[in-house]
Amino acid sequence: MNATNNSGPMGGNRIVPSAPASAASAVSRISAKDVTVHYGEKQAIFGVSMEVPEKSVTAFIGPSGCGKSTFLRCFNRMNDTIEGCKVGGKITIDGEDIYDPSLDVVELRARVGMVFQKPNPFPKSIYDNIAYGPRIHGLVKNKAETDELVESSLKKAGLWKEVHDRLDAPGTGLSGGQQQRLCIARTIATGPEVILMDEPCSALDPIATSIVEDLIHELKEQYTIIIVTHSMQQAARVSQKTAFFHLGKLIEYGETEQIFVNPKEKQTEAYITGRIG
Amino acid sequence: MTSVLIAVLVLALLGIAYSQGVSRSRLLAGQTRLHSRPQYHGALVALWAVLPLLVLLLVWLLASGMAQDWYIASQLPVEILPGTTEYASAAARLRNIASGFGVAGEAAEWEATAGAALAQFNTVLMLAIVALGAVLGVVGMLYMRSRLTARTRARNHVEAFIKAALIFCSVVAILTTVGIVVSLVTETVRFFTFVSPFEFFFGTVWNPGYSTTSNEASGSYGMLPLLVGTVMISLIAMLVALPVGLMSAIWLTQYANPKLRNAIKPVIEILAGIPTIVYGFFALVTVGPALSGLGDVLGFGINATSALTAGIVMGIMIIPFISSLSDDIIRQVPRTMRDGSLGLGATKAETIRMVIVPAALPGIVGAILLAVSRAIGETMIVVLAAGNAPILRFDPTEPTSTFTVTIVTALTGDADFASPQSLVAFALGLTLFVITLLLNIGALAIVRKYREQYE
Ligand SMILES: Nc1ncnc2c1ncn2[C@@H]1O[C@H](COP(=O)(O)OP(=O)(O)OP(=O)(O)O)[C@@H](O)[C@H]1O
Ligand SMILES: [Mg+2]
Hints:
Chain A is an alpha/beta fold. In chain A, about 35% of the residues lie in helices and about 25% in strands. In chain A, strand 9 and strand 10 form a beta hairpin.
């Protein structure tokens, strides 16, 4: 697995940001064209196209069941693991078609990390939770490197102070908010370029939520982040761009400020003022 | 006949009392708010109707033998003295005549009359009891019914009764276990008056002499050959069953598409339903000869009946056991955990090996230990396929023997039941029981340790 990882077309440049970072807002890292998703006979996403800029936070909002999670899962092909789920259209990351048959899914998922709605630490120690990804991708060669990576990832996720003296304790023994930060640290440790977050704060209390939000704020300096959220305030606080979905369609997509202050579509306005959903 | 009568009586009382309670309660409901719903009032009245009857029947069950003995004593001629064997056999003859079972030889005239009288006595007694029970039931029903008020806490009483009944059943189960263990222990102690425990537990030769005098043991009663045989066969069985069972569970849960899985799972479960005796002759007729043929080809001898034959077939028997249990356990690992691993770019196999199996491990270990206790306790396959040769050796290609097989041979011979060669079955049974118990305790401890860590 080390070999597949390092020799592939997307091997290089993991944690370190790529060179033309200054041109951030202009570069679109992820581009989706006419994406459709079917669960068996049932269509969940209807021809969605969007450009997601690099090193910024993009928020997906919309009423429950509108397809936010489904669309998010297209970007790291987690939909492949769902029985009967079919994705159509074209999605590229840095110009590369991620649904190309020759593309290695495992490598894609190392590049496009995901944080789930419910914290899902592995039944392993905190240390092993973080080291899991780097180990399977051969990012670390020895104990010292692993130690270092574990420490830096935990620091980035703002969890180091709380757990540095009990790295051998099971990850499942942490509080909900700590677990979610552990999952974020775990994702960071694998050296992704894009991080997908599906309602990462829905199981957290306000304090833990604000810690995670601060974290997202810092992470966007290095990573391209897409976050699904049910909280309009959260979308307004953390994101630069916002996409509003309704019944599987992308209704409106634009600068967050514009969406919340001056939405173009009636449906968007109705949703953010609390009339649908 | 009697039991049908009693069953009808109980059911009738239940039904009548319940409907009486319910209707009375509905009547009360007209005036005020009820404490409990009418169903509970009905149930309470029904309990009062049936419980006295059941208690009476229980008493009768215990006391009817005594009443019969007393009656027989009054019927037997005075020359037959109580306490003699003559007396006991005469009493037994009377009982047999009365029950219509018949006796050896012609019944003497006095025997026939006394038998008939005894039969009549029994019938009258039984009818009296049933009648008394019915009266008690009706009285209980009327009493409770008349005492019903809107404030009667029928729900609480019924709940309390249900709790008591549950406790009663648990106590029965516990007492049964205790009884079995006590009888095992007492018989084992008796066995140890013939053979020293040291000789039994550490002896390397199993060769009980079939002495006819039942107060002296001849021959050797060392259980080590049996222990080695048992462990060897169980080990071989687990070596076969564990990889196959676990892998098939992993395949079924993680790789097979649902249609295929739904078709295959029942087939594997049918394997678990095959009686072990069938596996036994499968071992004897097919696997044994095949193995010895294979041995010839490979150039070393394998006996047709050997630890290997028994172990392999026993392993096949246990496969569905492990596969089915692990399947359920693996399925319980949350999908989110699997997604977390896949989302980090782990492959399916890595996810299974490093996340799913570790998460399911406590359950799987429990399943394995259960399977081991089954293997150790399995009898039929070993009787047929292991060759029954209680000799201490570690070669799986040779015939061997186990605890269970030796227990069967010890009890099915025609030795006196009090002789050491029969009593040894209890000592072996107790040893087997202790081993299985320790395995189960170990399984529980492991499961608990993981629970604490990861839940
Ligand atoms: N595994 C699945 N199988 C079949 N249908 C699914 C599956 N997952 C989602 N769907 C359907 O697809 C549609 C979109 O679901 P999705 O989970 O993407 O919504 P969502 O916007 O994330 O909702 P929420 O805000 O409640 O999480 C829904 O109608 C849902 O019923
Ligand atoms: Mg969702």
